[in-house]
Fold Membrane protein.
Amino acid sequence: MYAALVALTLASCSKQGFLDQTQSTDLNEQVVFSDSAYTINFLSSMYADIGFATWPKRFGGGGLDACTDEAEGTGLGSINTFIQFATGTVNSNMITKDAWTTAYTNIRRANIMLKNVPGAKFGADIKVRAKAETRFLRAYYYFVLLEHYGGVPLMGDSVYRKEDIIPATRNTFEECVEYIVAECDAAAEDLPWMHIGENYGRVSKAACYGLKSRLLLYAASPLFNGGATVTDERLRSVVGYPDANSSRWERAEQAALQVMDGSGGQYALHVDNETEPGYGFYEVFQLRKNSEYLLARMQASNSDLEGIWNPPTFGVSSPGARPYLEMVNAFGMKNGMPIDDPASGYDPQQPYKDRDPRFANTITRDQSLVFHRDGLARRPVNIYVNKTDPNNVTSGQDAVYKGTPTGYYTYKMLNRDVAADWFNTYTPRCLPIIRYAEILLNYAEARNERLASPDQEVYQAVEAIRERAGLSPYQLRTGLSQAEMREIIRNERRKELAFEGHRFFDVRRWMIAEVVENSQLHGTEPVRTSSGIAYQTIDVRKRVFDQRMYLWPIPQSEVAKSTDLLQNPGY
């Protein structure tokens, strides 16, 4: 019965399936919740916005990728959110309102759903699942608010109308954390670890515990764990915990273990080093169903990312962000060593030789092979400037300064056999929101911070990521200090989770944004001459970071509605 109702919902939604936007109607609440199909359709409307915050085209030309030190945005002719973050001009009047409005819109939907579930026209077992899914989705949208703004007003189960006085006092950070934890735990009790068949992709127990893991890791991190600088005492407990407490790392560690130990092996890294080193890292993003996705935005077959991240002549007219050289250099060698280690074998004359296999599956560089509709085959991307004839310097449409300001394109999650502008080549990809690799890294980070020095469990979690990546050897040097392991874990997060929306929040919760986002960032100019190719480092952008940018400003239009809604520090 539940699957049948989902099928009705899918039929009534747009082509991307139950997680895409449903059609708005003038049906009233009584009609919607007196019809089982309409009711499930209403639930699906809350799924539709999942992943909006990490969508790479958020803000029009780069999303969160371009708001941090991962990549340079495109569409620079207009003032938008990523330009504000790049230039340090973030302000409450011009910042996008999407995090605030989209989250609270769905929280209100959730409260309407929960009010009406008891009288819904379907069986008791479906009511239990629908309620659990709704509670998770409400928690998810509160987490989106928390990671952007810190503590926010909690609405409880109330459904306010426009003529009502809506509470605007911000709850403390701790109250928001505990509320989200409680909702995740409650939802998890009534959900399976993994859905199958037509229900695959709906919220599961793993998604509940995965969100809890991320939440508690953030809560234990320096920014929120007593680290925020606040001069307004009214905000001290709103933007984070007012005191630092190292025991919060243990709680984050235990939350990750709920996924690692509780699922009975249903979730694991997708590993394939037989096809080629690191093939599992590539393939996992091409599979609609896999062992690694705890939560994803489900979609129909598509070429969405190819249409954003490929070079211009490969079918892209509305591009996304382009990686900085600093992002490129985060990828070490296939022997597991960083490129600045004298023993790594890195050759600046052949900078892309023998690199970490994740590099080629994340970054398009000069002469990378990318699928093109001409001949339906992979062909080299010409990013170089041709100076073989000094009197006639030329470069193509995909070259540095023309197609990309950095000399690189993003390749993360792209399908090797899909062209952006060819109507019959698509991938079944679904966009990951929480995956098992993140849980391993959450666990490793929390446990490493809790202990005086990393133990075997920390090593195993990090080495599992490196082994799946195709590094050989993948093992880390023994006897690492806590600080040394911390840097390795942070670098593994940077590589493994690149362009999935993590970096923006990671550098903030670690409180290193004032360094990595307050510096000159670079690109590469490949120059072809009669004697070969030279790779010249170029300046791309001097990014500016102000400490107030650790949190987003609440949109001024919202603050203006009530004197009870306090603005974040510095805005």
In short: The first strand starts at residue 71 and ends at 72. Residues 1-25 have pLDDT under 50 and may be disordered. Residues 124-149 form the longest helix (26 residues). The CA atoms of residues 517 and 570 lie 18 Å apart.
